[in-house]
Amino acid sequence: MLNKRIIYLCLPLIALLSYCTPEHSKIIVAEYGDYKIFMDEFEKAYAKNAGSLEKAKKDSLQNYENFLDLYVNYKMKLRNAEVRGYDKNSAMQNEIKEYKTNIGSTLFMESKITGPGTRELYERRKTEVLAAHISLIPDSSFTALQVEGLGAELIQRINNGEDFAELAKKYSKDTRSKDRGGVVGWVTAGQIIIPAIEKALYETEAGKIYPKLLKSSIAYHIIKVLQKQPRRGELRAQHILAMFKDSTGAVDSAKAYQKILEAQKMIDAGEDFGKVAVKYSDDKWSAQRNGDLGTFERGKMVPEFEEAVWKLKVGEVSQIVKTMYGYHIIKVNEEAPLLTYEQQKTELTDIYNKVKYKEDFSALVEELKKEFGYKLNDETFYKISSMLDSVQVGPAYSTSKVHRELGTSTIFTTTAGNYVTDSLFSYLLKKGVYVAKKLNMSQLEDAVKQYTGDMLVKEKALNYDKVNPEFAALMEDYANGIYLFKIMEEEIWSEVNVDSTMLRNFYEQNKQNYNWKERVEFKEVFTRKDSLASKYYNLAAAGSDFDTLVAKYSERKGYENIPGYYGLIEKDFSELAKQADALKNIGDISKPFKYQDGWSIVKLAARENPRTKTFDEARNEISSVVQENETKKLENEYVEKIKNIYKPKLNYEALQHAYKE
């Protein structure tokens, strides 16, 4: 029955736009009761069903007529659902409302922030930026206010012509970049966890500093963009590493340099890079794969390695490169093209959710607060906060002081209504947030913030169909699907009654259609190693009991309790069955053969010629057919009943003009 429901509910999401002239669109193609179906409605419905307007235009008149038959039946069923009061049925309307808020919230968020956010991220990631910064960190001797003053002073000095790199070396607290004049390296969007800094990098011209001091969780930053260039796709590279440290941990850079020189001489002499890597590289992880580092994007390697590898073209080999680990020689083997937006949408969404979503969602919630007249009830909030030591999220909440005294108290209001304390704690339990924990003040604030955001988005979703035609069409289709399902349930599925007598009679009349093909029965020993397969075959050929071999050696999962036994199977069902069928006599054993991810040996246990299935053997197939026949019969009877009510008239001649204007 679930499958039936899916058929009725899974309708296309996007309604096609009208494409008819007024005169053409008002041609009547059918009437039922007091209702008419005009050409424009028919053409839209047919194109949606066909999958596209172009496909619909190419279809035949006969197909149009067949569809009109079905469409009129569909419309009569919907009218009958209206007469039955389904549109006022509280259970159905609650189900539709729940779907509307859930799907509407998703579509609204996609259109409002996730879609634009991932698209902006994609466009930014086409460019990579060589960035530098001066990091200023407050401490016990240098307050945040003093840091802000110094930051403003340094920005002014840089704008007056002082050298950024020298100031970075003098003032920056970032020990990894200060000695390089503040140079962080090449970065692209999504690699920077602070949205404001990423925004600054992409808004600032190459060679310029961002005009404002930026704040992160631990520092203040002066940002400079050194260069910008089109971003390259992922590289695949090999390397050879001669480490400064030997196996004992002692540092010997001279020895490492001598080793890398020897490797370089072999490569210059034409030796295969991979073979040299296997012999010389101290990076054992990559050396065992001929020095292969796999694929990587800009920003994943240490700066010196990055600088060297991204200067290489495919097939080129670097000079000796020194990093904190030792000396490297690098070869680039592949460069992937940048993926399209659709190809990397999942990755972009993941990056966006980690880096930017929280900030954008907070901004959206502030917009929605204004739109829906949001007001926090400070009195209730602070009363809850004073009782936090006596309440937990979870079942214990129902006996808490907060529930008893404040459960029905409003915690915030919107134009849509009041939200009470009980609903807040119910939401937290449903979301699995802070369950079985006592909240502190910060967590309470966060909980109210989460609840507020989700409820405001749901309120927006309830009216989203009024501003989004695609969502409106989706909701109409979903509601119609619910109504049709209910009609089918009441008129047809609940009335289907198939008993043993009906099944037996059907079998006797149609048993010639239910037959077994030739079948074989066999047992199997399975192993993943060909050497073991040969061993087991030799044991079987020498007379060892096959069942014992199966029980002792077979690695096939799921057959441990029925030692390798396969019941009667049609001889062409699988490669195992085919191999068993190829054996001449009962008891014969096959030679080992490759099958799936290993090797199999089969023993033929029985063979059965084609025959008619018994009633019990065919019962499941017959039951399905009889149920389907009964369902069709009852549905036809129901359609005839509503035809007698609405007396449909179908204008097939009008369909000759479909899609002509």
Topology:
Blueprint lengths: L1 H8 L12 H4 L2 E5 L2 E4 H12 L2 H6 L2 H23 L6 H35 L2 E10 L7 H16 L4 H8 L11 E6 L6 H9 L10 E2 L4 E11 L4 E9 L9 H16 L4 H8 L3 H4 L4 E5 L6 H7 L11 E2 L3 E10 L9 H11 L1 H15 L3 E2 L1 H8 L15 H6 L3 E5 L2 E4 H11 L9 H22 L6 H23 L8 H11 L4 E2 L2 E9 L2 H12 L4 H8 L11 E6 L4 H7 L11 E3 L2 E11 L2 E2 L2 H32 L2 E2 L11
Antiparallel strand pairs: 1-2, 1-20, 3-4, 3-6, 5-6, 7-8, 7-10, 9-10, 11-12, 12-13, 14-19, 15-16, 15-18, 17-18
Helix pairs in contact: 1-20, 5-20, 5-25, 6-14, 6-15, 6-19, 6-20, 10-11, 15-19, 21-25
What are its keywords?
661 residues; alpha+beta; Chitinase A, domain 3
Task: Give your account of this protein's structure.
This protein is of the alpha+beta class and 661 residues long. Among the domains are: 127-230, Chitinase A, domain 3 (Roll); 235-335, Chitinase A, domain 3, CATH 3.10.50.40; 515-612, Chitinase A, domain 3. It is 49% helix and 17% strand. It is built from 25 helices and 20 strands. The strands form six sheets. Strands 4-3-6-5 form a four-stranded antiparallel sheet. A four-stranded antiparallel sheet has the order 8-7-10-9, with helices on both faces. A four-stranded antiparallel sheet has the order 16-15-18-17. Strand 17 (593-595) and strand 18 form a beta hairpin. The radius of gyration is 37 Å and the shape is extended.
